[in-house]
Each structure stands twice: as C-alpha cells, then as structure tokens.
Amino acid sequence: MLRGYGLLRHTFALASILMGADKFLHLLVDWDKYVAPALKRGRLDGGHVYMVGAGVVEILAGLLIWVAPRYGAYLVAALHFIFAASILIALQRSYFDIAARDLVLALGALALARMSPPGLVAFRRGNRHSSGSPVVAA
C-alpha cells in the first residue's frame, strides 16, 4: 500500500501544481471558457479573475499535499467537486467530459486523503516506523 500511497501523493501534488500554474498562466488551455456564464455576466474580464484565483488555490493545494497530504488531498477533492458542479449546474453540455474528469480526480483525491496520516509528514530519510508508514509530526 505504501507504494500506491506514494504514487498518489506525488501525482496529485505535481498535477495540482502544474494544472494550477496553467490556470494562472493560460499556457496550454484557455481556462476562461470553463467559467460558468452566470459568473461572466457583467464582468469586463470575462471571468478571467476566477480562473486566476482557482489557479493560485490549486497551486497552494498541491504544495499542501507535499507537507500535509491528508489536508491537501481534501482541499484538492473539494476543488474538483466545485469545478465539476459549476459545469453541471451551468449545464455547459459541451464540457460534461471535463466535469466527469473532475469527479474522477475528486474521488482519487479522497482516496489519497483516506490513506494519508494526519498532521504534517516528516520528509527526512530514516524517519519511518517499522511498519513502513511515514512519521507524522504532532
């Protein structure tokens, strides 16, 4: 289980940081098109500020997974549930595949949170119990 936990932890941390950076910088995808139309109405920026904010929060959540995986994973799960819900509530049918992807990511993040020890995880080598689980700082 420890190898699966490590794979999930590193994958969700790195993916959250990279996806958040892309939402912030708009290098790979025009994320503004995923903002619900109701949030775009009356805004001169077309909802751009929402995606920049989501990018910053997603980067912070990825960093939190490195330090405190349980809490970071719960935050990542909440973000992906919110992303999926905003697409489904706005009934943006052309983006239902994105909503499904976000729901799957949220469930994976919940699995990581359930596998993670509470508190801050120590990163020094040799700080493992005989069971192989990471040492937790109180």
Structural account:
64% of the residues lie in helices and 3% in strands. It contains five helices and two strands. α1 packs antiparallel against α3 and α1 crosses α5.
Poorly predicted runs = none
Strand neighbour order, sheet with most strands: 1-2
Largest sheet: 2 strands, antiparallel
Shape: elongated
Rg for CA atoms: 17 Å
What's the total helix number?
A: 5
Determine the N-to-C terminus distance.
Answer: 23 Å
Task: Quote the average pLDDT.
Answer: 84
Strand composition percent = under 5%
Broad structural category: mainly alpha
Got a strand count? 2
Helix content: 55-70%
What is the ordering of alpha helices and beta strands?
HHHHHEE
Task: List key phrases describing it.
single chain; 138 residues; mainly alpha; two-stranded antiparallel ribbon; 5 helices; 2 strands; 64% helix
How would you briefly describe this protein structure?
With 138 residues, the protein is mainly α.
Layout of secondary structure:
Layout: H1 2-25, H2 37-40, H3 48-67, H4 69-89, H5 96-115, E1 120-121, E2 136-137
Antiparallel strand pairs: 1-2
Helix pairs in contact: 1-3, 1-4, 1-5, 3-4, 4-5
